[in-house]
Amino acid sequence: MKLVDEAEIQVIAGNGGNGCVGFRREKFIPLGGPDGGDGGAGGSVWLVADENVNTLVDFRHQRQFRAQRGENGMGRQAYGKGGDDLIIVVPVGTMVTNVETDEVIGDLTTHGDRLLVARGGKGGLGNMHFKSSINRTPRKALPGLPGEERELKLELKLLADVGLLGFPNAGKSTLIRAVSAATPKVADYPFTTLYPNLGVVSVEAHRSFVIADIPGLIEGAADGAGLGAQFLRHLQRTRLLLHLVDIAPMEGGVEGLSPAEQVRAIENELRKHDPELLDKPRWLVFNKSDLLLDEERDEVVRATLEALDWKDRWYVVSAIGRDGTAPIMRDVMAFFDRQREEALEAANAAGGHAP
Fold first, then answer.
1. 133 is known to lie in a ligand binding site
2. Any binding-site annotation on 318?
3. What contacts 56, CB < 8 A, 6 or more positions away?
4. What is the rounded CA–CA span in Å between residue 341 and residue 330?
5. Which of 1, 36, 49, 242 could pair with 20 as two cysteines, CB 3.0-4.6 Å apart?
6. What is the pLDDT along the chain (355 residues), one digit of tens a residue?
7. Are 210 and 72 in the same domain?
């Protein structure tokens, strides 16, 4: 199913029920007094994250969600029944924004997370609350308060440990095929990947991580060019970026950029979209090494590293031949293991618990 990762919905909480104006009418109690009950509270609207849901496509068909209204109060001090809350199920990784204020209301990152997005209105008071020594027959009751109403933007960000970054045809889909059970479409034309793909990389028993194949970026992506602009947000949740570079680009067009120019162009798009993405750990992966002779390949790698003044890790692979891919995955797993160990040590030092 194609990933639908944005939707706008309207949520309307239930109104509170009205208070009741009532009086006791028993035969032998002539001065029974007021006994109008309160109205019930309106139902609230909640979003709940469910790991069994992986798309926002349902919200393209239904955009308005309304919780139940509270019942009106009744005589004999009977309270109205409160309206039922409305539960809206969304995928894990959904960020919720108030469209009117552009304020982020919440981020549902764990299965079972709940977020109150519209609170039901309070029920109105019945006339039994307004009796006094000077007003023994109050004919006053309060109406229920209206429930909250909001326009919400739902934005799904993939929960992946590793994000694959690079130009179209850099070989991201081929790499994810090589290292996981994911089977994204692979072809020799730009924009083969039209939506993100997730793959689970199992290094050994009980040791795995999730890798995301993001649609390729081109220059101007942060300003809306190409397809990758729609998916840059997915990189924000990753803990490590693998920056794939075509070591043997074809002549002409986007693919004609040298490896160093490819890296600089992508860095510029990341900087424009979210500068914090450049602060994430990022390893350079020279792909398609099988297209060059050893001496030519080594010269391209050396020149690129010098031009970029690259200080972090780098690898040379042939994703299509699965040559050199396994060591990268083992290093990635070791990287995450070190992160967990450091988090545990920090938590122990602080007397807490590791996340």
1. no
2. yes
3. 4, 5, 6, 7, 90, 91, 94, 154, 156
4. 17
5. 36
6. 344 477 899 999 999 999 999 888 777 766 678 888 999 999 999 999 988 777 787 787 889 999 999 999 988 888 989 999 999 999 888 889 999 998 989 888 888 899 999 999 999 999 888 888 788 888 888 899 999 999 999 988 766 788 888 887 778 888 888 887 655 444 444 444 445 667 778 877 667 788 887 765 555 444 444 444 455 666 777 889 999 988 887 654 445 678 888 889 888 878 887 788 888 899 999 998 888 888 988 999 999 999 999 988 999 999 888 899 889 999 999 998 888 888 788 777 776 555 5
7. no
Q: What angle do CA 177, 179, 182 make, to 5 degrees?
A: 40
Q: Is 126 among the annotated ligand-binding positions? A: no
Together in a domain, 114 and 204:
no
| Rounded Cα gap, residues 274 and 93, in angstroms | 18
- Whether residues 132 and 178 fall in one domain: no
Expressed as residue numbers, the domain containing 276 is 162-349
Indicate if 132 and 224 belong to the same structural domain. Answer: no
Say whether 168 counts as a known binding-site residue: yes
Alpha-carbon span 241 to 277, nearest angstrom: 9
224 annotated ligand binder: no
30 marked ligand binding residue: no
211 is in an annotated binding site: no
pTM of the model: 0.61
Q: Which two tokens stand for residue 215?
A: 């649609």
Q: Is 275 annotated as a binding residue?
A: no
The reply to whether 171 sits in an annotated binding site is yes
**Is 289 known as a binding-site position?**
yes
The annotation status of 131 as a binding-site residue, yes or no, is no
| Residue 194, annotated as binding a ligand | yes
173 marked ligand binding residue = yes
Q: Check whether residue 193 and residue 134 sit in a common domain.
A: no
Same domain, 282 and 249: yes
Domain harbouring 292, CATH code: 3.40.50.300
| Domain end call among 105, 122, 156 | 156
- Report the domain count for the chain: 2
Answer yes or no: is 305 within a domain.
yes
Residues 150 and 208 placed together within one structural domain of the fold: no
320 is in an annotated binding site: yes
DSSP letter for each residue of 160-197: -SEEEE-STTSSHHHHHHHHSS------SSTT---S-E
